[in-house]
Amino acid sequence: MIVVIAETDHDTVTIPSLECVEEARDVANALDMPVHVVLPGYHVADLASTLAAHGADRVTIVEHRALSQFSADGWLAALEPLLRDTAPALILAPASGHIRAWLPRLSLRWRVPLVSGCLQVRANTTHQIELTRPTHGGACHEQLTWLATNTLIATLIPGVRGVSQPDLHRQAEVIHHTPDLNAVVIRDRMLRALPADPRTVDLTEAERIVSGGLGCGGPEGVALLQHLADCLGAALGGTRVIADRGWLPTERFIGTTGKIVAPKLYLAFGVSGAGQHMSGMTASETVIVVNTDRTAPLFRIADLGIVGDMHQIVRELLVQLGYREVVGTPVDSVSARTASEDQRDTTGGTLSPEVQRWIADAKRWREEALASDVTGWVGRRK
Question: What is the reported pTM?
Answer without folding.
Answer: 0.70
